[in-house]
Design brief:
globular, 10 helices, 42% helix, 3-stranded antiparallel β-sheet, 3-stranded mixed β-sheet, alpha+beta
């Protein structure tokens, strides 16, 4: 088996050159995405958001690393995790390098003084390796009961999670052309929405509540950034449960505004908020090899003009 047969076999103290090479991959991937978005290529944005839905438990840097090394990856896990599923990494497969956190306690040196030393644990990172399901063989993975375009019980779980957070959720006959409205502790959804659309709109509006409504109006980002973040979260959460999303969300989003630093800041907020919603609704952990349906062509959305 090639180098990097799993997280458990990776070096606990990688050389600086190895870590530097991994960081360079992240930086190149981030710069490439920023450049693509600056030129209006939404296919790169769509691919990245799809990756976030598959790997929502991974950091932004690790998502970039996975995409850069294996763009077609759908389900990744470490060597030992795959073994727990009854699967083995195929001979000769090359691992996907990512960063894993490790906490080191500083050594305390004997001292005759009364000086207080800082003995708080200090975070460090090491390089470990994960593998895509296509690089493994063995027992079939458990199948989730998902129907494309229909959220099933996920919609009920999302509604319950929203109300459990203290937000009032109401369904009304008309919202002046809008599909949903968030007003700080209260979400209104238009009646008659198909289940998939209701799920996506509710995820969008809850993202507004989590990201923007907790701040004073003067402290919120501008409308373009707010709508970009909320719709990107809805896209990720919808794909995480297997809904068909297509290009409607990508057309709505304008993540290519601003420089690379602005883009990365927004992506980090999107990833964290999407993870919060996915976990609150009890969705499975995609980071532990649970299959997630890929996006297919979707129905047209009126969200672009109605929100």
């Amino acid at each position: 088996m090639s180098r990097g047969s799993g997280g458990a076999r990776a070096s606990d103290q990688p050389t600086a050159s190895k870590a530097d090479r991994v960081r360079q991959v992240v930086e190149r991937a981030a710069a490439d995405l920023a450049e693509q978005l600056d030129h209006g290529d939404r296919s790169q944005l769509d691919a990245f958001l799809t990756a976030l839905s598959r790997f929502h438990r991974y950091s932004i840097n690790n998502v970039f690393l996975i995409l850069s090394q294996r763009p077609e990856a759908t389900r990744v896990a470490g060597f030992q995790t795959w073994r727990s599923f009854g699967r083995a990494v195929k001979r000769g497969e090359k691992g996907i390098a990512i960063f894993a956190p490790m906490v080191l306690k500083p050594k305390r040196e004997a001292s005759n003084t009364d000086e207080v030393t800082d003995d708080r644990p200090r975070p460090r990172f090491r390089v470990v390796y994960v593998f895509d399901v296509s690089q493994t063989e063995g027992e079939p993975l458990p199948k989730l009961d998902r129907v494309g375009g229909y959220p099933g019980e996920a919609l009920l779980r999302l509604e319950s999670a929203v109300t459990a957070s203290g937000i009032v959720l109401e369904t009304v006959d008309s919202l002046g052309g809008a599909l949903g409205v968030s007003s700080g502790g209260r979400i209104l959804l238009r009646s008659g929405l198909p289940p998939a659309e209701r799920f996506s709109v509710l995820a969008h509006e809850w993202a507004h509540e989590l990201l923007h409504q907790t701040h004073a109006p003067s402290e919120r980002p501008d409308k373009v950034v707010r709508e970009t973040e909320a719709e990107a979260v809805a896209f990720v959460v919808s794909q995480a449960i297997g809904l068909e999303t297509g290009s409607a969300s990508a057309d709505y989003i304008r993540l290519y505004r601003g420089d690379k630093e602005t883009l990365m800041a927004s992506l980090d907020r999107i990833q964290k908020t999407a993870c919060t919603i996915i976990e609150a609704t009890g969705e499975p952990d995609a980071g532990k090899a649970v299959p997630v349906t890929e996006a297919t062509r979707a129905h047209a959305s009126a969200r672009g003009k109605s929100r």
